[in-house]
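Might you be able to review the protein record set out just below?
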Amino acid sequence: MKKILNILLLAMVLPTALSAQEKMRHQLRWGWGDMLFETMAFHPSPAHSYPVSVTLGDPSRTDYFYTGHFFAEYQYRLCNAVRVGVQADIEGIFWKEDGSPLRNYDLALMPTVRFNYVEKEIWSLYSGLGAGLLTAFDSRRNVELAPAFNLNFIGVEVGKGHWYGGVDLGFMVALNGVNKIYMLGSRLISFSANYRW
């Protein structure tokens, strides 16, 4: 009886394992994504153009610079339709406050899962999600932690052999309640270079 159960289990698992082995199992992604939320939340103050009784923003902050999101991800193919992995994402927002430079960074580490809908020889269509931890730190040695989430509604990869390029549409969010928002609608669009083996 045990032998029959083992044979049945092998018969169910083997086709999925073999179909995944025909394709390259490992993938590294390097990419860049936009910082729409950050550029709207952190920007030079328009306070100088309004009467003194109206104050918008912080007039002591000037010279803003944004890096965008740089990310790297490793993915492992479980089967034709599912990849699992881990992603690291970092962004920087820099400004001068009362003439002194201030550097602020957001580093997110999260496990990810990706679902392939269509996979052809030179292109594929997929969605994915990730959840993990954001570490926000700055040049004044302040450090804060927050839950982080990444949702990729739709992504397209195009390429052949080992190299592919990708475009993802989705968003990234990290917050600790309504008053501690680090990202909200960040990485709406991302571009990546992908290497498979």
Summary: The beta strands are 26-33, 61-66, 69-79, 82-97, 100-119, 123-138, 143-160, 163-175, 181-186, 189-196.
